[in-house]
Amino acid sequence: MEYRKELREHNIGADAIGRPRKWLTENQSPINTIDDKPFPDAESGRDVWNRMSAFCNEIVQSDEENIIIVSHGFCLPMFFSVWLGWDIEMLDKCEFAGRAGGVSWMCENTDGIRIIQRLNDMSYVMEGAR
Q1: DSSP helix/strand/coil, 3
Q2: What is the pLDDT of residue 126?
Q3: Alpha carbon 93 to chain centroid distance?
């Protein structure tokens, strides 16, 4: 197991640490574009995109056959977008939604086409409940 700082949660700023969700909702700046920040010292979506891009490039160049990535609700959808080769500006128009505990399978075929075979799959939860 290897801890990677690139997979840490979205930094929404020091002022927001430990605050209730209601406070965040009432006090954050509007997020309309990939470059907007909820608070002045927070990361923008572009900042997260940049670290996910660097991480994705490293994975693609790796000799590892199977890699398991565990991250957070804002970061993983960014990773999915990078994985599929989206231009960052597309995130001003659409996005992936993450699910807590969701498992996704991604691969690259022999032609170099990147595929998301499953996205946010939760079937293991139902299987475990039987």
Answers
A1: coil
A2: 72
A3: 16
pLDDT of residue 130 exceeding 60, the answer is: no
Residues in the chain: 130
State the virtual CA torsion across 107, 50, 89, 70 in degrees, nearest 10.
Answer: 40
- Give the phi and the psi of residue 14 in degrees, each rounded to 5: -60, -35
CB neighbours (10 Å) of residue 9?
Answer: 12
What number is the average pLDDT over the span 58-63?
88
CB–CB of 82/52 below 8 Å?
yes
SS3 content of the chain, % helix, strand, coil (to 5): 40, 10, 50
From 8-12, 97-101, 119-123, the region with the lowest mean pLDDT: 97-101
Contact between residue 90 and residue 80 where contact means Cβ atoms under 8 Å apart: no
